[in-house]
Amino acid sequence: xxxxxxxxxxxxxxxxxxxxxxxxxxxxxxxxxxxxxxxxxxxxxxxxxxxxxxxxxxxxxxxxxxxxxxxxxxxxxxxxxxxxxxxxxxxxxxxxxxxxxxxxxxxxxxxxxxxxxxxxxxxxxxxxxxxxxxxxxxxxxxxxxxxxxxxxxxxxxxxxxxxxxxxxxxxxxxxxxxxxxxxxxxxxxxxxxxxxxxxxxxxxxxxxxxxxxxxxxxxxxxxxxxxxxxxxxxxxxxxxxxxxxxxxxxxxxxxxxxxxxxxxxxxxxxxxxxxxxxxxxxxxxxxxxxxxxxxxxxxxxxxxxxxxxxxxxxxxxxxxxxxxxxxxxxxxxxxxxxxxxxxxxxxxxxxxxxxxxxxxxxxxxxxxxxxxxxxxxxxxxxxxxxxxx
Amino acid sequence: xxxxxxxxxxxxxxxxxxxxxxxxxxxxxxxxxxxxxxxxxxxxxxxxxxxxxxxxxxxxxxxxxxxxxxxxxxxxxxxxxxxxxxxxxxxxxxxxxxxxxxxxxxxxxxxxxxxxxxxxxxxxxxxxxxxxxxxxxxxxxxxxxxxxxxxxxxxxxxxxxxxxxxxxxxxxxxxxxxxxxxxxxxxxxxxxxxxxxxxxxxxxxxxxxxxxxxxxxxxxxxxxxxxxxxxxxxxxxxxxxxxxxxxxxxxxxxxxxxxxxxxxxxxxxxxx
Amino acid sequence: xxxxxxxxxxxxxxxxxxxxxxxxxxxxxxxxxxxxxxxxxxxxxxxxxxxxxxxxxxxxxxxxxxxxxxxxxxxxxxxxxxxxxxxxxxxxxxxxxxxxxxxxxxxxxxxxxxxxxxxxxxxxxxxxxxxxxxxxxxxxxxxxxxxxxxxxxxxxxxxxxxxxxxxxxxxxxxxxxxxxxxxxxxxxxxxxxxxxxxxxxxxxxxxxxxxxxxxxxxxxxxxxxxxxxxxxxxxxxxxxxxxxxxxxxxxxxxxxxxxxxxxxxxxxxxxxxxxxxxxxxxxxxxxxxxxxxxxxxxxxxxxxxxxxxx
Lengths: 389, 272, 310
Hints:
The complex is a heterotrimer. Chain A has helices at 42-49, 81-87, 109-121, 139-154, 166-172, 191-198, 226-236, 248-252, 259-264, 271-277, 294-306, 324-339, 351-357, 375-386, and strands at 4-13, 16-26, 31-35, 57-61, 66-69, 127-131, 158-163, 175-180, 183-187, 215-219, 241-244, 312-316, 343-348, 360-365, 368-369. By secondary structure, chain A is an alpha/beta fold. Chain B is mainly alpha-helical.
C-alpha cells in the first residue's frame, strides 16, 4: 500500500468535533501542505492517519512504514545523538549531524529538530508526516529541510507537511490543503486565497500606537532564550509586576484549586466580579480551574494578574493555542493595560501578533536582542533578524 | 579489618546495586527496607525448614519477590504514588514479619541456630563480578539503553512497564540475597526490625553514587568503613555512650546526603 | 468517601481472615476489635490525631515529612526537660522541639537539596537512639534499674483516665483546618503543594512556605509527644514513640488529607489499636496486626485515588 487514502473520517473529543468528515487521497511523490490555524484539526487528522488515534467514523488506508515528526520532541536529553538514534532503531541516514557523541541536552533546537527528522527518515518510511517542523528552524535550516523533502518525494515517499506558515508551504508543497474547524475548506490557490480560507476574520489594523512605546513586542523563533529573557524582565521590573507565563498549565493556573482560590492568591476583588469582567465562561467561582478551556484559563490568569493594576506586564506567548475570540480578548486587555500606563513586554513567536500589538518590535536570536524598531522597519528586517542574519 | 567492614557491608551493596537499576528505570522504591526484612524472615524459615542455607537464600529471594510484586503492581501497573506505596510496603513487611515472628515464637523456629553456607564467596562476587555484569547490561546492551531511557524520557520507549518490571525483578533477587545474607551469615537468625534502616541508607548511597555502579561501590565501602569504625569505638571507648554510637551510621548517612548539593542530576523521569 | 469505606472494610476483612486462619470466628474477632474501652480509645486517638495532622499539613504543602516518629520523640524529650517550669512551658517546648527537629530536614533540603523523604526517616532513627541514650544515661531514674526516667510530678489535669490533652488536640485540629482553608497562609500552602512552579509564578516564596509548613507539621508531632508524656506515660522509656509517627500516615490518608476528617480517622485507628491490644490479651493474636491494618488502609486508599497528597 503506497497511497494514503482518508475516507470520511471524523473524530470528536467530548463535545468538540476535531475532525469533521474529512476525505483525502494522496499519491506517492506528493508533498501535501496541510495548513490551518491552531485547532483546525490538522494534527489530529494526521495522528489518525498514522494510527496513533482511532477515528470515530471513516476509513484510513495508509502505508505500513510511517514516520511522524511531532511538534514536541521525544528525545532523551541525557543521551548522545548516537544513543537516541540507536534507541529509535535507526539505521544509516542520508542526513547527518556532526559529532554524534554530543549530548542532546547540548544541541541547539534546530539540531534537535534535525535529529527527530533523522529518526523518522532512517526507517525508510513510505509516508512521512512533519508537524510544524519549521516552527523552531531558522530560514536556512528550513531550506535544508525542504531540500530533503524534495529528494524523498522524488523517490516516491508521500510527505505531509503541517504548517500555519503560508509562504513556506507555497515554496515546497505540490498541493496545498486548507483546514478550518475540522473540515477541508479549500485546496490550492494564491497566498491571499489560502490565508482568507484559513481564518474567519480579519485582524484589526491601525490601532493608535503609543509614543513612547508602551507595548514592546519581542519576537523570535521558539528556543532562542525567551524564557531567560522573561525571567530577567520580571526580576528587573520596577513596581508591581504581572507575569503571564508561557506554559499556562504548568506555571499559570493551579488546576486542582477553584477559580476563586486561584484569584485569591493575588487579588482581593470578589471572584464573581472578575468572572464577569473578564468574561470567563464558568458556572461558579467554586469550579476547579483545571476544568476551564484554554482560553478561559488564560482569561483567569489575566484577571488575577491585571486586577492589581500592575506597572509592568511580562506576557510570554499569551495567545498560544487560543481560539480567535480569546486571542482578541487578550490583545484588547493588554492594549487597555498599556493605555492605563503599564509597560507591556510581549514575548511571542507569532509575527502577526507582534505587529498587531507592538509599538516597538525587537527580535531575539540566541539570547540577544536587536535594537527596537518601529513596525515599518521591522516589517522589512524581522525575517532576516530571526534567522540570525 | 577493612575486609571485615567490606564483608559486613555486602548486603547493603546488593541493595544499593538493585535500587540503582530500579531508579535508572524511573521508579523510586522506598520499600526496599521492607523487602529486605521480608527476605530475612523467609530466608530463616526456608533454611530451618529445609536444613539448608542454600534453600534459605532461595527463600529470601522469594520473600523479597512477594514484597516487590506488591510494590510493582501498585507503582508500575496502577501508577499509584511511589513514595507512599513504598512506605506502605515497609509497614506491611513490618507488620507481617512481626506478626509471624510472634506467632512462631513458641515453636522455637527462630531460636535454633541456622544452617550456614560452607564457604563465603560473597565478597568478590558482590563487589567485583556483579557490578561488572550489571554495568555491562545497563550500558552495553540495547535492553540497558531502553531501560535507562525509561528513567529519562519514557515516551521514547514502547514497553516501559516491561523494562521497569525487569529492573524490579533484578532488585528483588539482589535484595532477597541481601536479606538472607543478613539473617543467615551476618546475624544468627531473625530479629524484629533487624534491617534497622539499611534500606534507607541504601537509598541515600544510590544518590551519593550518582546512580552509577562505581559510585555505589565507593559509597558503600566508605559507609562500611565508617560503620566498622563505630564498632571499634564501641569496643575501645567504654566511655562513649552505646546509643550515641548507634546513631552514628544515620548521622553519617545524613552527611552523605549533604555531600551531593545541587550538582547531582537524577534520571529525569524518576518518580513521575 | 467511598474509598475510605472500602479501605476500612478491606482492613477489617484482613483481620477476619487472619483470625480465621488461626481458628477464630470472624464475628467474635471483630466484636473484640471494635469493642474496646472508650477511655482507652480516646487516649490513643489523641496522639494519632496530632500525628495525622502532621502528615496532613506536610503532604498538603507537597513535602514528604515521614519524620513524625522522630519529631514525636523530640517533643517528648523537650517536654520532660521543661516540665520543671510547669505544664504550659512543657507543652510549648514540645511544639518547638518538634518544629525544630522537622526544620533540620527542611534546612538540609534547602541548603543541600537533600531529599526530605530520606532525611526525615534518618532523623527518626537518630531520635530513637537519642532517646535510648537519655533513658540509659543522663535522664535515667535515680535507682538506674530500668531504661526509663523518673516519673514526672506535673501532669495534665484529667477526669478519670482521660486527660486534658483531648481538648488541646481537638483545638489544634480545628486550628489546622482554619489555617488551611480560611487564611491566606493556608491558601499559599495548598497552592505550593498542588503546583510549586505555578505558585512561584504567582509570587509565592516556595522555599519559605515549605519551611513554615514543615515547622507546623513537626510542631504537631512534637505536641503529640509532649501530651503523651504529660497525660499518659508520665515518664520516658525506650520505645516511647511506639509507631505513632508512622501511624499518622494511615490516619491522614484515610481522611484524604482533610483536617476535620482526620478526627474521625484517628478515632477509628485509636479504636483499632485498643482492640488489637484486646485481641492479644483474649485471642492471643499479636497486636502487630494493627500495623498490617494500617498498611492495607494506605494501599487501598492510594490504589483507588492514585493520588495521595494535595
